[in-house]
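Figure 6 in text form: structure in, sequence out.
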């Protein structure tokens, strides 16, 4: 069973982009680039707010059993 989690090994800020990359089997760097590109048309605040909420909601890799 596939689970979404924040990575510990591929962490830059909180591990959200690394976890999303591992979940969808894509390079986490691509997820980070997509997040940065989304900040341009949608302004910075909504993307940062979504990242903050994801940090709270998505469990850490070490917490997943």
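Output sequence:
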């Amino acid at each position: 069973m596939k689970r979404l989690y924040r990575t510990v090994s591929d962490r830059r800020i909180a591990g959200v982009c690394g976890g999303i990359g591992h979940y969808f089997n894509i390079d986490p760097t691509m997820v980070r680039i997509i997040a940065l590109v989304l900040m341009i048309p949608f302004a910075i605040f909504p993307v940062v707010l979504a990242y903050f909420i994801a940090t709270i909601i998505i469990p850490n890799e070490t917490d997943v059993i």
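Caption detail: The chain has one domain: 1-10+29-65.
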